[in-house]
Amino acid sequence: MNPEAQSNPVVQRLQTLSPGAVEEAQIFRGELTLWTPPARLRSVAEALRDDPEFSFKYLSDLTALDHYPLEPRFETVYHLYSIEHRGRVRLKVRLSGDNPCVDSVVPVWPGAIAFEREVFDLFGIQFSGHPYLIRILLPDDWAGHPLRKDYPTEGYR
Amino acid sequence: MPVTLERVPGQEERVILSMGPQHPSTHGVLRLVLELDGETVVRAVYDIGYLHTGFEKSFERLTYSQDITLTDRMDYLAPLSNNLGFCLATEKLLDLEIPPKAQFIRVLLTELTRIQSHLVWLGTHAIDIGAMSVFLYCFREREDILRIFEMVSGQRMMTSYFRIGGLALEPPLGFAERVDKFIKKFPAKIDEYEGLLTRNPIWMVRTQGVGAIAADDAVAYGVSGPSLRGSGVKWDIRKAQPYSSYDKFNFDIPTRTEGDVYARYLVRLAEMRESVKIVRQALDGMPEGPIRANAPHIVLPERESMKTSIEALIYHFKIVTEGFHPPIGEVYQSIESPRGELGVYMVSDGSPRPFRCHVRAPSFANLQALPKIIEGRLIADVVACIGSIDVVLGEIDR
Question: Could you tell me the pTM of the whole model?
């Protein structure tokens, strides 16, 4: 954790509200990135949405990264925005490549429904507690998850 | 069939209707599954993916400069907004300073993009509801804007005019006069559209109180852009987090509080007037100077200098064959596209190709509000509601 990120008000507030919620924090090009343990995701998301100092009520974006062949292989990425404070934060959760699964944030931000379906479709990450987790862009009978790094871009699989 | 609705036991008289994907008013290939009780929609789900082309995978195997050509094809009604989002994200990653003239031309052209995108929306939305002539008028003015795009980039639609570090070419002679002529006559044209629709009793009955969504619901579902501002949330990224020197321009953010189809219509029409104001300011205050950043390892050299300078030739060769190496890191850049928040999440591993480039398409999130606003309404209103949130399936499916 770099010192600049350590002294960031969002990091400090989150550390006091729920100690241990921030695994790591980083600032690059003025953008704050937080890592949180998968087990804490739901509570951290609720704190970020409901605390009046954050009020990240708007989920801008939800996606994932594949770091194949490294472990932990996947990261889910949440871009949050506060319309009141005009602030942005990026929240990340590291997941293992073996049967990746994370809590769904649909109860916190209903707008996550389509985004989580897209990540499930293209990365094969499961979201527990999602109301309707089926493929969204690809056909039902598609084999594999194209945005994984071990999925080739040309030739035959 | 992938997406479907299960029948509710005891409600056998209800009809499950599959609407689309080939339906003239779905603005692309959108399929809806509706559960109807008589003419009332009880439940609705949408089915997308018919235009999925795997842009995000393709981004990873092309260099940053090559990727720009893909961005045009996502939101094909606002190619320059997509170019801008992608270029700004890459420039943020590279920490590149863009000359003021290039920034002003970018603003000017993205505002013209907003106008032409809203014109397509207005024409098709009106034709959906039954007002045929508006469509013809809108496409007449849209053609003027497309000719301006053709003038600067050589292409009417797939422009790829913005490049990493600036612009592809200097705008040709007569560009400013052409834009000036257009924005002088355009406000009167907006009056003409408004004369046909705004106080038209049929239009008002078909749109007022139809498809209303409350501000809190809209925020929770991730709705952005004019569709959100129609519900009274005054959030515009051009003002909230200005990019490309939008902070130097003076304009208003039109909002309405009703949140219905009519409110979204009024917001978009007012936005066109604001865009005219911005284009006028960009034209009058156009700075002098270069149109590309001074970064020889990123920006292609002038054609002439390649004939006389060995460095320019080497840089040209390296950029074209290999690309450039941004630092390791990740950025998220959002811009206000005609449809809302267009975000580009770019992750670099130091190689000349993006490690990951994800596009947060505004229509993708806005579409989630559709079932919410059509449930409980008549099936005839469904078409009006689809039009009012202005989705482009190209960017939804990517």
Answer: 0.92
